[in-house]
């Protein structure tokens, strides 16, 4: 009754965590109680305060409702639980941690006064309850106290008393006082429940409670009023453990709840070839695998939709958080952000990843590089107009020059009164002047008449304007390939109205903006709520797809880890602005889970070894996608592709010049052959040989003169050789 009263007091403090049920209300069918416990309360810790004779039936029925799983904890309060017969029904279905308490019993050590257990506890207790043992200790206490009092009062006269005497026995008060003050050394025989001491009111104040597992009768710890709980020194005491297998100590299988989210949890491409947990891959999969190796547990995955959102209307959670609240899973892992609201319903380990919030935006791809990029500052029609202007100006220049008397000059300036005049402004010279002006190179000959100079000046002005415009447009065009967004921060997003922005509905990012006291964050949140159509998405994947689809018309606020992952794999995405806030990912476990500390310690070990960073590099860095076409360069840096057209024009001009030079050479060979009456082959050979003599700078007017000189040199050389031969013969 006192236990029920104490529990009622706790329930009054916090009825959400402590629920009290009277077994008498479920005496007809205990299955109703356990079904309610599993489906409604989702309790993992159960205190059972009942008579030992009903324990077997209660616990046996609970198996059908999975209340004896490896993560359940039962505490049986009755001191006679060891006599309930639980060991008769104990099998591998009982994987829960079942504990109880009893008064520690010992047998006397004949060699010393210290109370130790030399006999197995099963042999000491047998099938008896604690009541005979307590009666035995009470009789020993009374007998020892009475013996001491009687021994102190010599001679002793037996009292002439009976139970119906109206007045108490004179020595009774002395015996009661002796019972309260007697020393342990004066007690003979010794107590079976170790030392017994009473306070002034006759209440026992010194006793040891043994915490043990009733299913295998294995002592674990001892509780004393003075020192609290202490572990047993099993190496010094003889225990009965080991006679029955303890199924609660078997390797546990954790249910890990998660959801599909790249790169945390994904299906393998060839998952058809695998079974069970081997079908999955990702950062979360590797993390759980590392933890299972350190803590030596098995695991299986449970897949749900989403991390866990809170519905204020139903006041319920979904996703990973829901499964943990219902104790359908033991560990929750994914991109699960630690928030105060989530911590009110589940526990978190230490963070395994630190992150923040940033803006994901579309990055327009640069235009394909063109070899003839130098032509793009002007439209095609402008180039056509310039060509026609060149031709028209050339013809006009020739015609007007022929009309101007100042442009007709004597062919030989030394002749004062020539018979004819010559006009130098033919088509060739006029074209050269026009082209030289456009190229800013000038010309060796210039017009003399004023109207010709006006015409030339206007052409120069036209050439100057076109060249300046071309240079400016070329610089602007070449630097425009470097992508730059007008939005560079969250402040820029707030100040404009063309680009809508949002986040995942009900996620930690939305919660951050909705609960922030910062003015800019509140403005951003209000704008997100007012956008039509809605700027919120159901998942991060949907938000990324929307950014790419709207091509600059939408920005998505998301965690930097997921943002970086998507940028690595999509060249048309970029991050805008700096990181906003600070968040952490952690493993979620049900409230009060005793294995949370071990998980946290293991995460710290992985962090110290650098394993967490290695796993992040493995799943975030993408070595298969290169974004060379999106590579942002400085405006002054031009590739050979963009300037390749200039080289092609140069090569084309050189080739045309060489071809025209060859044709001109052949034409000249034909004329020389006709004039000097030689064969074309002779003329070709002579002209080619002379052209290849790069050290000769003067050319004879006729081929014959050159041939005569060569013949005379050959004849004189032959005469000199004949004379030398005759001299050698004479000498011999």
Task: Give structural notes.
- With 732 residues, the protein is α/β, with parallel strands linked by helices.
- Among the domains are: 2-157 and 169-248, no CATH class; 373-479, Orthogonal Bundle (Helix Hairpins), CATH 1.10.287; 655-713.
- It is built from 23 helices and 23 strands.
- A six-stranded mixed beta sheet has the order 1-2-3-6-7-8, with no helix packed on it. Strands 20-21-17-22 form a four-stranded mixed beta sheet. It has a three-stranded parallel beta sheet with strand order 12-9-15, covered by helices on one side.
- Strand 7 and strand 8 form a beta hairpin.
- Helix 6 packs across helix 7.
- The radius of gyration is 53 Å and the shape is rod-shaped.
- The termini are far apart.
Which helices and strands appear, and what pairs or packs with what?
Layout: H1 2-13, H2 30-41, E1 45-48, H3 55-62, E2 73-76, H4 86-89, E3 97-103, H5 121-125, H6 130-152, H7 172-181, E4 197-198, E5 204-206, E6 209-213, E7 218-224, E8 228-231, E9 253-258, E10 266-267, E11 280-281, H8 283-295, E12 298-303, E13 310-311, E14 316-317, H9 319-325, E15 331-332, H10 340-343, E16 346-348, E17 353-362, H11 380-403, E18 408-409, E19 422-423, H12 427-438, H13 450-479, H14 490-495, E20 500-502, H15 508-515, H16 519-530, H17 540-550, E21 554-559, H18 560-569, E22 573-585, E23 588-590, H19 596-609, H20 611-620, H21 640-675, H22 680-692, H23 703-731
Parallel strand pairs: 1-2, 2-3, 9-12, 9-15, 20-21
Antiparallel strand pairs: 3-6, 4-5, 6-7, 7-8, 10-11, 13-14, 16-23, 17-21, 17-22, 18-19
